[in-house]
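Board notes, transcribed. Complex of a protein with D-ribose.
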Amino acid sequence: MRIHLGADHAGFQLKEHVRRWLVASGHQVTDVGTHAEESVDYPDYAALVGTAVASGDADLGVLVCGTGLGMAIAANKVPGVRAVQASDSEMARMARLHNDANVISLPGRYVSPERAEEVLGAFIGAVFEGGRHQRRIDKISALDEREG
Ligand code: RB5
């Protein structure tokens, strides 16, 4: 898959691990940064990854910050993005199956590299079920179209 990957300073170390793991797993990874541990602002990286996913340049996005929360909040401001924070494989899997999530945000300060691999593997390996869930996704997408 084509995966855009981004992190802030709090997610930098885990992002480095995740990039190596994704590449070793055969994915085409674009790392948008950050590339060092100096303090940066997570919305900048959420915007880069979210925009790539929404435009179709990436199939999925992976974000890492301290908690995964701020990245998810910011990425969800990009129309077309359905970002979820997850530190649990089952939640990550369900986010794909039912919510057609296209961005996952990991809490770099709260998951081990091994757990991150499990969570990402569950996310990437699951496929949206469609059916009744598509109607709900369409309603989420309609929220992107609202003005104001
Ligand atoms: C940075 O200290 C931290 O606030 C950020 O990485 C993230 O956890 C925000 O949601």
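The domain at 2-145 is CATH 3.40.1400.10 (Ribose 5-phosphate Isomerase B; Chain: A,). The first strand starts at residue 2 and ends at 7.
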